[in-house]
UniProtKB/TrEMBL annotation:
Protein name, as recorded: 1-deoxy-D-xylulose 5-phosphate reductoisomerase
Keywords: Isoprene biosynthesis, Magnesium, Manganese, Metal-binding, NADP, Oxidoreductase
Provenance organism: Sphingomonas molluscorum
Gene that this polypeptide is encoded by: dxr
Entry GO MF terms: 1-deoxy-D-xylulose-5-phosphate reductoisomerase activity
E.C. code: 1.1.1.267
Amino acid sequence: MVKRVSILGATGSIGTSTLDLIVRAPDQFEVLALTANRDVKKLAEAAIRTRARRAVVADPECLDALRDALAGSDTEAAAGPDAVAEAAAMGADWTMAAIVGTAGLRPVMAALQTGATVALANKEALVSAGAVATAAARAHGATLLPVDSEHNAVFQCFDFAAPERVRRIVLTASGGPFRETSLEAMRAITPAQAVAHPNWSMGAKISVDSATMMNKGLELIEAFHLFPVSAEQLDVIVHRQSVVHSMVEYVDGSVLAQMGTPDMRTPIAHTLAWPDRMATPCAPLDLAAIGRLDFEPADPVRFPALSLARAALQAGGARPAILNAANEVAVAAFLAGKIGFLEIAAIVDDTLERYDPEAPATLDAVLAVDGEARRLAGERVKDCVA
Ligand code: NAD
Ligand code: MG
């Protein structure tokens, strides 16, 4: 059976890995929509290569360039945030949600509302709107499959038929490029150093999140929404090789882990073929060559983002949405060279201190909280620059 697929964020790191799997099995997949922010060239190339029905850029100013790039092909061009959300609802059987940040929230909701399967890489959507998104998935009978390697690992090990048998979920963290860097040295970290992840090749935003360990904090919140466990049942351990992708501990002491080489095509393929399996070109795991696997606790002093996220998870309500929005603003400012590395967590902390609204119950309410948190975080960025 041919699976109809769409990829939101097709030009990014996850989008490119997803396309790589799809073009290797052209007779198994039909591409409905591919979307991007403004990388017209890469989007058009992918659309032509996969004979996509529609290609969409979020930036309306890129529409003419996209039309030109698609000239002579059968792919329709569209532009604007609404067109991205419409593309998410074209009736795909499987949709990859790989837009980075809260920009992906409305398209994720649109895809969930079709009741189909959504492979979720866009963790920010679940962090800021976890309750709203999972309620929409339930209401429309949609299936959410986690792409994030840790959550995909947990999904593969978790006994959903008897969640009371699970004692704990342990998310592994690589510790990022500054696992051993002193707090003093962290002050001078440059964007180029922060995006150079030791194990994974990823987009800039998630690479900085890995370096601050906010990524693992966001993943704690993501796990809370994906699996039927309490916040207290979620733990983090630093495992620098990124071979054990996460673990589920049962009440009898058994611990099930999923392992593999650090290549996102494995978890993507797991969601693409699920409940079946498909072959990938990923290098097989060679444990003898790796030799040893190391584990250590995370350091809360050098990585305060982790504690901020844990506190936001425990408090619930609007806290995770504020944490996420302030982090997006701070990371963008860091990447633009406006603030220092240690100021990222400080700005998130400050925004959480200054803003404590009611829990948002609808998508619009989440987006309002997100907007106000961005405004407040933006003020602090200006203070840092001044
Ligand atoms: P990336 O920066 O490489 O790609 C982001 C994609 O989103 C691009 O296609 C870009 O055009 C699109 N985009 C950006 N802003 C947009 C906007 N305003 N509107 C519409 N589209 C927009 O990022 P990535 O590394 O592929 O990560 C994508 C998501 O997957 C993130 O949420 C990230 O946390 C998550 N994730 C990534 C990895 C990884 O290995 N890269 C692993 C786990 C989870
Ligand atoms: Mg991850």
